[in-house]
Amino acid sequence: MKQTHIRRTEITIETRSLTIIRSRNVKSGCVRCQNCQTLTAAFTPAHAVLIFRVDAAEIKRLFQINQIHFADDSALCGKSLADYFKQEIRYVED
Ligand SMILES: [Zn+2]
Fold it and tell me: What percent of the chain is predicted at pLDDT more than 70?
C-alpha cells in the first residue's frame, strides 16, 4: 500500500478499482443511497463522466434504463456505477 499525505479527497483510478481517499476531517463523498440504502460514494454526473470515461449521454442513457441511479437529488450512486462498470470501490482513510 502506497503511503500518501494528501489532505483532500482524492480519487485514484486503477484498472479494476477506484480507491477513494478521504480526509478524516472532511465529511464528504459518502451518502446513504435513497434507492439501494448503501452507504456509498456519490458522484455528480460530471464526475462520473470523468471517472468512468464515458460521455454525459451514456450516463443519462444508463440512468434511463435503470442501470444506474441517483443516491440523492444531485449525485449518482457510486455503488450502482461501480456495479455497472465492474469496478470495486475501496475506501481509505488518510
Ligand atoms: Zn444506490
Answer: 72
